[in-house]
Amino acid sequence: MQMTDCRVIKMGENTKKIKIMIADDIPLLLEDMSELIGRQEDMEVVGTACSGKKIVELAKEKEFDILLMDIEMENLNAGITAAEQLREELGEINIIFLTVHDTNEMILTAMGAGAVDYIVKGCNDEEILNHIRSVYDGNPIMERKVHDVVMREYVRLQKSEKSLLFFINNISGLTATERELIKKLLEGKTVKEIARERCVETVTIKTQIKGLLRKFGCSRTKEVTKIINDLNLTHLFM
């Protein structure tokens, strides 16, 4: 990790420190990031984990302000899955993805999962600290590339009734069950087939579908799947 002379924050005795959790499957990077944050007078590391599964368990036990998390850990989308699960169980939390993946698809997927910021690995330490402090102050900043990707996608969809903003807001608010339900619908499964696979009554799936339709403002499941396919957002559910 590139080291720079980081900004010194002077604190009073009663000033609250920013409590940060870190998740990265590379021990050296996890250690370096922990040391960097530990040197800041206004920050403290309250927990670390080397997988998405472990950070989810830890986050339920610890009080924290910001979760700094890699995307690819035990699998390619471990961070995305962890973010979705934590948002479902803990509500609104501040998640910053720090990752080597900077493809347009991955950026949109990460922001759709509810991340407040997205940093591509390789930037200097001062920049990372600036992102953390900005998120804590309620004014998250995005790297230029991330900002441009999101804005291009927004412009592409702004003439559509189902804009990117609409989908980001609705997709990020879906439960794990609803996301799985959409996945099955995109695969062409019927209500009976989904119920059989999930070992529940058909009426249960129908009730879940009604809630899903309300969230998307649609009257039929085919409308939901068509919109997702038309906007090329199927990767968000696979």
Which labels suit this protein?
five-stranded parallel beta sheet; Arc Repressor Mutant, subunit A; 238 residues; alpha/beta; Rossmann fold
Can you describe what's shown?
- This protein is α/β, with parallel strands linked by helices.
- It has eleven helices and five strands.
- The chain has two domains: 18-150, Response regulator (Rossmann fold), CATH 3.40.50; 174-237, Winged helix-like DNA-binding domain superfamily/Winged helix DNA-binding domain (Arc Repressor Mutant, subunit A), CATH 1.10.10.10.
- Strands 2-1-3-4-5 form a five-stranded parallel sheet, sandwiched between helices.
- The radius of gyration is 20 Å and the shape is elongated.
Structural class designation: alpha/beta
Straight-line distance between termini: 32 Å
Tell me how many strands there are.
Answer: 5
Count of alpha/pi helices: 11
Largest sheet: 5 strands, parallel
Instruction: Write down the secondary-structure element order.
Output: EHEHEHEHEHHHHHHH
Mean pLDDT: 82
The CATH class label of the largest domain is Alpha Beta
Summarize the structure.
The chain is of the alpha/beta class and about 240 residues long.
Question: Secondary structure elements and their pairing?
Answer:
Blueprint: E1 18-23, H1 27-38, E2 43-49, H2 52-59, E3 66-69, H3 78-90, E4 94-99, H4 104-112, E5 117-120, H5 125-136, H6 144-157, H7 164-171, H8 176-186, H9 191-198, H10 202-216, H11 221-230
Parallel strand pairs: 1-2, 1-3, 3-4, 4-5
Helix pairs in contact: 2-3, 9-10
